[in-house]
Amino acid sequence: MSAAATETSAAAPPPPRKSEPEVSGRVPPAHSWSTHVRATVLLLVLSILLTGFVYPVVTTEVAQVIDPYAANGSLLYFPNGTVAGSALVAQNTDAPYLFWERPSLTDYNTTLGTSTPPGPSDPALVNETLSYMAQYGYYTVNASVPFWLVSASGSSVDPDLTPEAVLVQVPRVALNTNLTEANLTALVNAHIVNPDLPFVGVAYVDVLELDLALLPLIGR
């Protein structure tokens, strides 16, 4: 390369520099209050949708597949098909031709709370027992009144009674129906539910289920 060419190359001006963008004097904060508000509102909406709609719908559908009877409230029906109530809630039954439920401190109202049920020596229980025997004692000759028949449950709406508390009512029901004591005893025995595991829990009878099975037999 000649000296003239070298001098010409050395004298060439440098390429023009690109203009840099102007930097504003105000830099937006990394976490503005509007950003937090939007995030909070979004989280609230998602939480409401998940817990208020998606979760209930999913659990309801799963329950309907696994156990639709329990998912729908364990409903029981009269012979004509109308709803009689739930197998989980006792009812105020005082007809002489039916088996009676456990006493209730709330008159079988599921919306009311209740205090602790009376113990064996509580005056309230003693009075309840004396009242029962005074009115219906002639039905329980040579028989004691079982504790469950004269004492309220913890919820005061427990529909279950021990077999002894149901069988002691057989003479009264037989006297007010066209069924013999043997027939009624067999009916009660057919409705006894034993615990799933031995020595875990007690045998019981759901009185509402028993009464619903009794109604067709006595023509009611």
Mean pLDDT over the residues:
77
Global shape: elongated
Strand tally is 5
What does the radius of gyration come to? 39 Å
Strand content: 5-15%
In N-to-C order, the SSE pattern is: HHHEEHHEHHHEEH
Give the class from helix and strand content and strand pairing.
mainly alpha
Specify the biggest β-sheet.
Answer: 3 strands, antiparallel
Biggest sheet, spatial arrangement of strands? 3-5-4
Helix residue percentage: 40-55%
Count, helices: 9
Distance between the termini: 125 Å
Detail the poorly predicted runs: none
Describe this structure in words.
With 220 residues, the chain is mainly alpha-helical. It contains nine helices and five strands; from the N terminus they run H-H-H-E-E-H-H-E-H-H-H-E-E-H. The strands form two sheets. It has a three-stranded antiparallel sheet. A two-stranded antiparallel sheet has the order 1-2. Strand 1 (75-77) and strand 2 form a beta hairpin. The longest helix has 34 residues, at 33-66. The model has no long low-confidence stretch (mean pLDDT 77).
Helices, strands, pairings?
Layout: H1 3-10, H2 33-66, H3 68-71, E1 75-77, E2 83-86, H4 123-136, H5 147-150, E3 160-161, H6 163-167, H7 170-175, H8 181-190, E4 192-193, E5 204-206, H9 207-217
